Amino acid sequence: MVEPHKILLAFDFDHTIVDGNSDTWITGCLPDPLPATLKQNYIKGQWTNYMRKVLAYLDDSGVTVGKLKARLKEMQLVEGMAELLCWLAKEHNRFDVVLVSDSNSLFIDWILQRAGLQHVFGHIFTNPATIDACGHVLLKPYHSHSCSRCPVNLCKGQVLREKGYSLMRWIKEMVSEGSTNVSPHIVPWETGFEVLQFLQRITGTT
């Protein structure tokens, strides 16, 4: 649960922290694109099940864990994201920073370690992945849920509610108490620098 005096920042990973999709990035380990017969196995909302098949295909094609790790470490962060996350680490008394992603724990860990940013996030909620004794990547869904809008393996809204990060509950409580401090707005951004500037402005920091 977020501490009352802190600002909650919940990040996605793909196309937010990293400039691309970490799941599709690993197919670059292959000399040729994935076969159409494999791609046809994808069912909408069941991305993790599909990625299990992709990982099995990569393994059968001779792509080792070492090659996967090396490939993922080549991924670039979104411009300004390293600066933003480093600043948030310094301002840890002001912010509760969490990551909620449909990627997986191995891929996220490898990329954050390479960037030296693994210490920034207080919690990472994602699909668990491990390496078995034979060197195979084993991918599991984060949880099951009943939300029809989200992939079957992860509902980000439910994760935040279960962990006590309930924005709607806070807003309802503030409105019922007659508070005028509720001022929602959208902040368009393309780089981490824009997010950093916004956070510095609302907190009066540099």
* Distance N to C terminus: 27 Å
What's the β-strand tally?
A: 5
Q: Estimate the helix proportion, in percent.
A: 25-40%
Give the assembly state of these chains: single chain
Number of helical segments with 4 or more residues: 9
Strand content: 5-15%
Number of domains: 1
Largest sheet: 3 strands, parallel
- Overall radius of gyration: 19 Å
Strand order of the biggest β-sheet: 1-2-3
Q: What is the ordering of alpha helices and beta strands?
A: EHHHHHEHEEEHHH
Walk me through the structure.
It contains nine helices and five strands. It is of the alpha/beta class and 206 residues long. The chain has one domain. The strands form two sheets. Strands 1-2-3 form a three-stranded parallel beta sheet. Strands 4-5 form a two-stranded antiparallel ribbon. α6 (105-115) links the parallel β2 (95-104) and β3. α5 (81-90) runs parallel beside α9. The chain is globular and about 60 Å long. The model has no long low-confidence stretch (mean pLDDT 89). Its cofactor is Mg(2+). InterPro entries: HAD-like_sf, HAD_hydro_PyrdxlP_Pase-like, HAD_sf, Pase_PHOSPHO-typ. Belongs to the HAD-like hydrolase superfamily. PHOSPHO family.
